[in-house]
Amino acid sequence: MTGRAAGGGRTKSGKPRPGTGGYGKRRLEGKGPTPPAEARTGHPAQRRAAAQAKKAAPDKVSGRGASAQGGARSAATGSGRGTDGRRPGLARGAGSSAAELVAGRNSVLEALRARVPASALHVGPRLDSDERIGQAVMLAADAGIPVVEAGRAELDRITGGAIHQGLALRIKRYSYADPADLVQAARDAGEQPLIVALDSVTDPRNLGAIARSVAAFGGHGILVPSRRSVGVTAGAWKASAGALARVPVAQAANLTRALAAYQEQGLFVAGLDASGSADIGELELADSPLVLVVGSEGKGLSRLVTQCCDVVARIPITGQAESLNAGIAASIALYAVSQLRA
Question: How far, in Å, CA of 213 to CA of 297, rounded?
Answer without folding.
Answer: 18
